[in-house]
TrEMBL record:
Descriptive protein name: tRNA-dihydrouridine synthase
Keywords: Flavoprotein, FMN, NADP, Nucleotide-binding, Oxidoreductase, RNA-binding, tRNA processing, tRNA-binding
DUS-like FMN-binding domain location: 29-330
Record EC number: 1.3.1.-
Length: 341
């Protein structure tokens, strides 16, 4: 039995307030570049009707220069609440991009200050803003001035172990008008390695008045509860735990709402979901969707007999039919091994 302190229980019974926006769920689906497109979000939304979703990060410079908005900003009319995540280091481009994002239907604007990828940090975006706190503050203030929806920030604890500056940085974000801070408990230098250091999330929560969302290593209901108990954060954001597993946000939310742990999907249910994911990507993106589906399908193939062979095959598919055939065969052989699987 998982136990929850009465303090946490009380918090979970209340909506998450992001400035003027109220969200019924305290579990959020993170922005994941190359993953959280409209097709993936539809699957997550099915299992978690109330959670906040994020688009993949979008470059404000690109939005400024392109005649048409990038497809990454496309939002289904029924997928609210959803935030569009922007990255850049130019306050004027960010303000302009934020206005366009709101016109597309974004309920909040999220600013990426955590991406560790060189291509982004070299141009002054993502986690490199941790080293430019004044510019980061100006960015937030300019975006806040330009739109009526709440503006939020997602960042890391610091550049590296020698430069863990999140306490001062987080305070600056709040002072500049950010309505919520999501904190990934790793440094930029850590990338995705090592444990997320939730102790820093606790320290930040203690000094801010805006909601703080804990991110990093939320792979299960147990981890979500444990993280909230340790950090006192206002919610959790799931990331890598959702790769090939769009059920996670809903599973955690169900427990937060009811105190009951749902049964996990069976391997056959996961493969059925993989088929839908493949079909969705094909319909939405055509051939490019098939190539993107390869990685998604291989993420679905784990923890059942024959998973590693299947992983190998699905990561080379050329057509939707090929993918369907492989997934159907795997489903059949699983039902021969165990009709309830
Ligand atoms: C494939 C991948 C893509 C990501 N893309 C984004 C992104 O577009 N924006 C962002 O803020 N974070 C992005 N992240 C970081 C995650 O949102 C999250 O902060 C990080 O994975 C830590 O959580 P985890 O330990 O639960 O995975 C990405 C991470 C991965 C693995």
């Amino acid at each position: 039995m998982l136990s929850i302190s009465s303090h946490l229980q009380e918090k979970l019974s209340q909506p998450l307030k992001i400035g003027s926006v109220e969200v019924k769920s305290r579990v959020l689906q993170s922005p994941l570049s190359g993953v959280t497109d409209l097709v993936f979000r539809r699957l997550v939304r099915r299992y978690s009707p109330n959670s906040m979703m994020y688009t993949e990060m979008v470059s404000a410079t690109e939005i400024h220069h392109l005649k048409q908005l990038p497809r990454l900003m496309e939002i289904d009319e029924n997928e609210q609440p959803i935030s569009i995540q922007l990255f850049d280091c130019r306050p004027d481009f960010m303000a302009e991009a934020a206005q366009k994002a709101v016109a597309e239907g974004a309920k909040t604007i999220d600013i990426n200050m955590g991406c560790p990828v060189n291509k982004i940090t070299k141009k002054g975006g993502g986690s490199s803003l941790l080293r430019q706190p004044h510019l980061a503050q100006t960015l937030v203030a300019e975006v806040v001035k330009s739109v009526e929806v709440p503006v939020t920030v997602k960042t890391r604890i610091g550049w590296d172990d020698k430069e863990i500056n999140i306490l001062e940085f987080a305070q600056k974000m709040e002072d500049a008008g950010a309505a919520m801070l999501t904190l990934h408990g790793r440094t930029r230098a850590q990338g995705y390695k090592g444990n997320a250091r939730w102790e820093w999330i606790k320290k930040v929560k203690e000094i801010l008045t805006i909601p703080v969302i804990a991110n990093g290593d939320i792979f299960s209901v147990e981890a979500a509860i444990n993280c909230l108990e340790i950090t006192g954060a206002d919610g959790v954001m799931c990331s890598r735990g959702t790769l090939g597993y769009p059920f996670l946000v809903g599973e955690i939310d169900h427990f937060f709402c009811t105190g009951i742990k749902q049964n996990k999907p069976t391997p056959r249910e996961k493969l059925e979901c993989a088929k839908e994911h493949l079909q969705g990507l094909w319909e939405y993106k055509g051939k490019r969707g098939i190539y993107q589906a390869r990685k998604h399908l291989s993420w679905y193939c784990k923890e059942f007999p024959g998973a590693s062979e299947l992983r190998d095959k699905v990561s080379r598919i050329e057509t939707v039919e090929e993918g369907y055939k492989l997934l159907n065969e795997a489903k059949e052989s699983l039902s021969l091994i165990n009709p309830c699987s």
